[in-house]
Amino acid sequence: MIGILKRRFGLLGRNISYSFSKGYFTEKFSDEVFAGNSYENFDISEIDHLTGLIKNNPDLKGLNVTIPYKEQVIPYLDKLSRKAQLIGAVNTIKFTKNGKLKGYNTDYYGFKKSLKPLLEPHHKKALILGTGGASKGVAYALEELDIPYTFVSREAKENIIDYNLINATTFDNFQIIINCTPVGTSPNIEACPDLPYEFFTDRHIAYDLIYNPAETQFLKNAKERGAVIKNGYDMLIFQAEKAWKIWNK
Asked: Locate the Shikimate dehydrogenase substrate binding N-terminal domain: which residues (predicted)?
């Protein structure tokens, strides 16, 4: 094909051989429409290795960012989109024409788009399990959907409750439970967040950002009690396509 540009993209993270993004974009780029594009994993042990990575790969046009660098990467960027600034986490980086790095968050978009079809009038409040970078995008999406939320962590802090406080009353008050922790990811598929699963009902949504396995122990436990369940696969597709649009605008 005439006039095809060779462009490199990649995923920034730690221990990311399992990565969804590499498989997704490699398959996407196998289509002749996208010939010339390539995608690879950049597995770095510390975020300060990013400076050398960029210096040694001057032809990079964009990066996705995953655990544990969605927050740590921000000081290395020249600019943030308005929403990434509000969220406080970045999962997409665009290399601008003048060589600057601009951070975006497409996690919130992917989560919002995948959750919205499941919502019914009785789904009024959400519990967010975990307080890492991914949880920040989820929280922002819930704000846009006018759904109040509370964070859950292993340590209670201001505006955060710990797992020990979750009981039947909690499940009465919160109808959407979202796992933003890595607990239950392959290969540790028997692990799950420490919840009283017996209080899930058919009026609850259990959403897990994990996509491998497709049905985590968290989702299995909730499903047994009648809850509507959803894994993170669709969210990842939506956020990846949003990132692709950002890199091409």
From this structure: 11-93
pLDDT, tens digit, 9 for 90 and up, residues 39-72 = 999 999 999 999 999 999 999 999 999 989 999 9
Q: Give the helix/strand (H/E) hosting 138.
A: helix 133-144
**Three-class SS state of 177:** strand
Is 70 annotated as catalytic?
yes
| Amino acid at position 60, single letter | L
Lookup result for tokens 């290399």 = 95
Q: How many other CB atoms are there within 10 angstroms of residue 145's CB atom? A: 16
Amino acid found at 100: K
CA angle 199, 108, 140 (to 5 degrees): 75
Rounded to whole angstroms, the Cα distance separating 9 from 240 reads 12
The predicted structure's pLDDT at residue 155: 84
Domains observed in the chain? 7-104 (3.40.50.10860), 108-234 (3.40.50.720)
Distance CA 33, CA 17 (A): 27
Query: Which pLDDT value is given to residue 186?
Result: 87
Within the chain, residue ranges assigned H as helices are 20-29, 50-56, 82-87, 107-115, 133-144, 168-173, 217-224, 233-248
The pLDDT confidence band at residue 1, using thresholds 50, 70 and 90, is very low
Closest CA to 88 of 67, 72, 112, 110: 72
Selected catalytic residue, list 22, 70, 112, 136: 70
Task: Supply the pLDDT for residue 136.
Answer: 95
pLDDT for res 2: 45
